Amino acid sequence: MDTPFQDKHIIHGVTGSIAAYKAADLASKLAQAGAQVEVILTQAALQFVTPLTFQSVTGRRAYVEADLWGSEGHVQHIGLAHQADLLIIAPASANTLAKLAYGLADNLLSLTALAAQCPLMLAPAMDGGMYAHPATQANLETLRQRGAILVGPAEGHLASGLVGPGRMVEPLELLGHVRWVLGKGGPLSGRKVIVTAGGTQEPLDPVRVIANRSSGKQGYAIAQAALDLGAQVTLISGPVSLAVPVGVQPVEVQTAQQMHDAVLGCLPQADALVMAAAVADFRPMSPAENKLKKESGVPEIRLEHTPDILKAVAQAKARLGRPSVTVGFAAESQDLIDNATAKLHDKKLDLIVANDIRATDAGFSADTNRVTLLFADGGVEPLDLMSKEQVAASVMARVSELLQKASA
Ligand code: CTP
Question: What domain range includes position 264?
Answer without folding.
Answer: 187-407
